[in-house]
């Protein structure tokens, strides 16, 4: 996993993996914790520790990669750690990167493709007079991937101004004030918020509370985590279903199916 077990979407993903994994399969978990420790040194330490452990256990038949940082890690250390091991990704935001690496016949998986168009259409039914679409983002790996996707849609909606609230560039107080300044003419979309410029790191639950308590308009969410906790859901990605599908793929691979079948 790119993150830690404390990240609520990871818990949801794992529930799905448990549902989809086959009988008589041993399932191990490793957590990179990149939401709190995204620096190169931390990632290298994770590599060193994982390498140590993998050298002392039976080779894995397949590895499930949760979210973008894990996929990037696996590709960086492919020859060293995962040579000839099938890889199944899930929860990937960077669609172009996932499609590129999946040209390898041993790599397949599930994209986390957020439906901007369907959610904007839904939001417009609730706020027909809106003139601005604002995304809540940060500078994390997920944030960078979704930032590209978000602005790609701007050309499709010339009647709207596309903007963002980048929590990584705002202090805690500035972030609160900026959220509070969002007016009723804005469709506010919560995508990811894991840090601010004051050095504060947020769990998913903390960031959801921050947005819900400070924004004067409802924020829309495009994945299942946070719905009903202060965020509105439209067309959402099910993290549990993504985990389940990835586990079903991994199980089939363990039972002899070639990964290329799923492309």
Rg, alpha carbons = 19 Å
Shape descriptor reads globular
Q: Care to count the β-strands?
A: 8
Report strand order across the widest sheet. 5-4-6-7-8
- The amount of helix comes to 40-55%
Largest sheet: 5 strands, parallel
Percent range for β-strand residues: 15-25%
* Sheet/helix structural class: alpha/beta
Distance between the termini: 22 Å
Tell me the series of helices and strands, N- to C-terminal: HHEHHEHEHEHEHEHEEH
How many H/I helices?
A: 10
Which spans have pLDDT < 50 for at least 5 consecutive residues?
none
* Average pLDDT level: 93
Question: How would you portray this structure in words?
Answer:
The protein has 263 residues and is an alpha/beta fold. Helices cover 41% and strands 17% of the residues. It is built from ten helices and eight strands.
Summarize this entry quickly.
The chain has 263 residues and is α/β, with parallel strands linked by helices. It has ten helices and eight strands.
Q: How are the elements arranged and paired?
A:
Layout lengths: L7 H13 L19 H15 L8 E4 L1 H9 L1 H4 L5 E6 L2 H7 L5 E5 L4 H11 L5 E6 L3 H12 L8 E6 L5 H9 L5 E5 L13 H11 L4 E5 L7 E7 L1 H16 L9
Parallel strand pairs: 1-2, 2-3, 4-5, 4-6, 6-7, 7-8
List its traits.
single chain; 263 residues; alpha/beta; five-stranded parallel sheet; three-stranded parallel sheet; 10 helices; 41% helix; globular
């Amino acid at each position: 996993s790119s993150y830690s077990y404390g990240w609520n979407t990871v818990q949801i993903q794992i529930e799905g993996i448990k549902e989809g994994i086959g009988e008589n399969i041993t399932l191990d978990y490793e957590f990179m914790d990149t939401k709190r420790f995204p620096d190169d040194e931390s990632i290298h330490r994770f590599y060193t520790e994982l390498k140590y452990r993998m050298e002392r256990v039976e080779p894995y038949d397949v590895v499930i990669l949760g979210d973008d940082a894990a996929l990037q890690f696996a590709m960086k250390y492919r020859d060293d750690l995962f040579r000839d091991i099938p890889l199944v990704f899930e929860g990937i935001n960077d669609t172009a990167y996932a499609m590129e690496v999946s040209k390898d016949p041993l790599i397949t998986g599930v994209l986390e493709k957020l439906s901007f168009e369907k959610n904007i259409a839904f939001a417009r039914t609730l706020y027909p007079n809106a003139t601005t679409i604002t995304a809540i983002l940060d500078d994390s790996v997920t944030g960078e991937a979704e930032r590209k996707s978000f602005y790609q849609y701007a050309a499709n909606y010339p009647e709207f101004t596309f903007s963002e609230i980048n929590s990584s560039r705002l202090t805690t107080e500035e972030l609160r004030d900026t959220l509070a300044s969002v007016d009723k003419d804005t469709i506010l979309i919560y995508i990811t918020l894991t840090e601010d410029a004051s050095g504060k790191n947020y769990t998913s639950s903390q960031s959801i509370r921050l947005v819900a308590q400070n924004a004067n308009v409802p924020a829309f969410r495009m994945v299942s985590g946070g719905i009903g906790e202060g965020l509105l859901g439209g067309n959402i990605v099910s993290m549990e279903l993504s985990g389940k599908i990835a586990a079903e793929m991994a199980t089939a691979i363990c039972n002899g199916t070639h990964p290329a079948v799923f492309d």
